[in-house]
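Make up an example, fold above all:
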Amino acid sequence: MTEPRQGASLGTRIFLGTALILLAVLVAAVAVISVLGERIATREAGDRIAASAALRVASQQQHFQQLGLLAEIMAGKPEFKAYLIDALAAGDRLSILDQLQERSLELGYDLALVVDAAGRLAARTDQPDAPAADLSARPLIRRVRSEFEAAGIWPERGRLYEAVAVPMAVNDGIFGFLALGYEISDVRALEVKRSTGSETIFLSGAEGSAVASSLTPQETERVVGALRGEGTLLASVVGGGEAAVQRELRLGGERWLAQVAPLADAGKEAVGAVVTLVSLDRALEGYTRIRDVLLAVGAGALLAALGLSFLLARRVSRPIGELVRATAAAREGRYDVTIPPGGSGEVRTLAQSFNSLLAELRERRDMAEYVEKLARNLPESTAAAGPAASEEPPGSRDLALVGVELRELARPRTGERAGPAFDRLTSQLRAVAAAIGAQGGRVEAIHGHRVVAGFSGPSRCDRALAAVSDVLRLLGAPENAFDEAEAPATAIATGAMATGAVSWGDEGARALLGFPLQQLEALLREAGPGEIALAPEAYAELGDAFARAGLELPPRRGLLSTRALYLMSAAEVSRVEEVTGRMLTHLSTGPEAGAHATLAGIGPGSLLGSRFEIVSVLGSGGMGVVYKARDRELDDLVALKMLKSEVAGDAALVARLKTELKLARRITHPNVLRTFDFGEIDGRQFISMEYVRGITLRDMLEQSGRLPFSAAVWLARQLLAGLAAAHALEILHRDIKPENVLLDSAGNLKLMDFGLARPVRRLEPGQTREGWLIGTPHYLAPEQIQGREPDRRCDVYACGVVLYELFTGALPFAGASPLDVLTRHLHEPPPPPRERWPEIPPALEELLLASLAKEPAARPRDAAELLSRLERAVG
């Protein structure tokens, strides 16, 4: 039966999508114009304010120069000085006033003061009746008495003057001082407005009394009131000595940009302020008109485009409808339908491809029915997974539990037989088990279409999350266009669990008891397809990874449970891994790697010296085989390197290894794999090292090629930091290569295999045999190939090769044989990295080439310098 159509039709979606795109473009255009207009208007207003301030300052300086010249002319006239000397001696204030007022009409000043040599007032034009007073403390008089020249703002009874003071002298010395000033009035404010178009208000005192303005009295009062409403703005500028401050004001529904700048007296103290205003709304008028026109034109264009998109959608969706109906039939298992090869272009090609796919599905259906018949006659298989469940002693363990619910298997497909359904269940269970095993987990139970797995030990939640990510990646995508695959629902819970064996009759099984299991079942009921439900405890353990990725999941209340839970998608898991640089070891989709070579008599399950229980083989090399082992004395996992017989039989080589491993044990850097011990057990030489679950850098490069820039920088920094720690202790590695760089599940790098490490200076001559090359041809420095004494710069060269490979995805030198590679290292310059990666930063390319210089002296002197230069190169 055909399922009812879900949602709108294709034609409707095309129409609505086109409408939304056009509307979004229109809205974006209007928004851009509005934002740009606002920015330009604000910048223009700021420029006008700056121009007004510059003009005001220039005009003030010009007035000071004019007043100074007038004062010097008056003070320099002999008859004027003689008259003043007599008047000062006689205390004749009226005569002095007559002289000052007579010249004010001629010279145009608004204020004139005469004080005696002691700073006492003799006469002033603004207050003719003012009694003699001591003005020596006023900044203008104080400064002219000490420096013989002074200029600044002179405040007096609510007025402001631009004033200059000069001394008056005769042969006997200075007998007084003359001060002249221009009053700051509305005329001055209007001059600024005519020149710059900005409004100007001059204020006196910290209270902000207006003394001059280019605005009307009512407008001036509104502006002053608005400034007073800004709290301590005026006080901070006038009384607090703060520089010019800009604020946006709203006056009568209109927005203004205002700047408040201090007016300083001769002592550089603020005695008032000047306010410069520019209307933002008026500056925006042009952009507002453009926006309105754009809205009108855009609305008309939108209506016309919607009509055309409606017609186009109907035409495009008609042949697609036929494909949809055929697809629905195929989903029901009716593969015998065909699609008429009508239409043209992509639609015709799609119909032909679809018919070919249906033919293939028919063949696969027939083959599946045949395999089902054969499978019924095959005996059931049993999986041996170590000790029987009944042999496991009961105990309590802290586990991270993973639940995987294969929901599509809970609802059998229409018309599907039981055989194919169980085939799909078998296939999916294998994928889940592989993903769990790849992260070191264990399948605890399988209930129909639900799988429960446990993870223990360090990073248990990290590995559980990686396993869930693999499950969703492997099972979330359909196998073909007609696959109804529904992504599984998954959940993670953590806590203490009781584990042990139970039996009934002749059968037994492993069982789990504890609240996390109940919690896991509740979480699975809340998770949707493709979602991961996290218990609060699991979310807390993963909090560091989420914080580094900037991901914060909101707590939710379940529909069936009142406990808090957290939901995340597979895309969010990828974001955590990408942003935080966590290199979780994912299940490989390629062919499985073959088994590692092992030593005779030593394999998984072996027990060495009643101490080391061999768990698995990690790898093998020229000197021996590396095993994962459990140290029963320390109850911990270690990496155990068992030396090959030809190596262990070389007494000189073993002695050198012991000496050099003593040096390697001194390195305690987090990016260096710790070496624990060198000893003999059951007649075999071994080296015990720190065990880290992860993959080598070589494995990663083989899977991904050139790494993303951020990931390459992350690894390069850690590699150089670990090597710098060794160089600081005067220890060389001598075999830097991706195979000796280990990455754990969190993306942390460990430099390992210091078995070839040696001090910078030889302990004794001849430690390296003549004709022997220690290292790997692709990563050997020229001086190592030539047999010269190596130093830190040979490690720098090897690091340069590794970094070249990280950032470009290729080795600098390749060849048909090791000899070809060695020859190129000796004689050929490395290809410029930009030939492999054109976007490489020039500074980084220069550093890579410097690290690969033929002469050691041309390279960075050690890993620390290389790390420092790398930091500068990558910013």
User: Anything to note?
Assistant: The radius of gyration is 44 Å.
